[in-house]
Amino acid sequence: MSSGYPRLSMHTVHLGDDAYVMAMSGVLSPDSVGLAGIWLAKAMAESARVLVDVSGLWAASAAAVQVFPSVLARAGGWPYAQLVLFGARPELTRTLEALRVPLTVPLAPDESAARMLLDRRPPVVLRTVDLEHAASSARRARVFVSAACDDWQLDMIRDDAMVVASELVANAVVHAGTASRLALRCRQHGMTVAVYDHRPDLQLPLRPVAENQQGHGLFMVAALSLHWGVRLGQDEKCVWAFLPTTASVTYSQSVRKSAYDAVRVVLTHGATSSDATAVQQLVAQLAEQHGMDFVRDVAVELAAELAEVSSAVISSDDH
User: Fold this and answer.
1) Residues 74-111: tens digit of each pLDDT
2) Boundary (domain end) residue, out of 244, 265, 293
3) Cα angle at 268 between 264 and 269, to 5 degrees?
4) Which of 149, 158, 194, 299 is the most exposed place for a label (fewest CB within 10 A)?
5) Strands 20-28 and 82-86, sheet pairing
6) Where would I find the beta strands (DSSP E) of 92-189?
7) What is the CATH number of the domain that holds 48?
8) Residues 80, 72: Cα–Cα separation, whole Å
9) Left if phi > 0, otherwise alpha if psi is -120 to 50, otherwise beta: which for 165?
């Protein structure tokens, strides 16, 4: 390396029942980040509570510091795994903060302060899992999300998050045809579910192409999330969805479920059913409590979903 910085090295300072304390020094660069990841992963396998002295560490690449949240997420993230950095030089501190690393991996001035942060939940918690190119991966995704929602106290969005993750992983298996990585990122106002596959050149269809009429593909993802999108990289594609945990989301979900129930009854028994009337009363009550803007948002969402229902009914009649 032309920088003159020392080679990356790591050694154990203390390995006890309370925490694994290690020191990382030298230069963290694209060439050495893989080695850093191996060392960190090994430390977290030996102890779920790891403190890293980075007072002797330089970052030759800003992106390389993402190795810390990446390893933490693969180890299970909070509360199963805790990772805290301490003693960073001003230059490294600025790099870590610019990449928002301390939101997921706390940064302390010294070891004493770092120990106090071990049991404190970070502002952002992460968890990732690698999934095979197999039909069973969608089920594994649901189990993975359910466990995370337990740990992060997200009961209000558990069911929706499980469906979203399952649909995104199924799309990666069926349409991208590759293995995938499921990543969960939880912050104060909600959780992002992201699935990475290895086909950035292949756009995903809004509806499934060949899933034996099971699931609703990205339409279901759009219906259950506040925002969703696709990010293309050089070697991978990320399809993500954000599920908020606000009170309005709970109301919206209640309206959606009631409306679907009413639609089923109306299609079967006609528009005079009591369920349809109950939905009208519910919407009127929500308009009175939360305003017409809220009702319009729900109406737009419901209209899109009903269009999908109508399409499915027409397709069924054709066959």
Assistant:
1) 999 999 999 999 999 999 999 999 999 999 999 999 99
2) 244
3) 115
4) 299
5) unpaired
6) 107-108, 125-131, 180-187
7) 3.30.750.24
8) 10
9) alpha
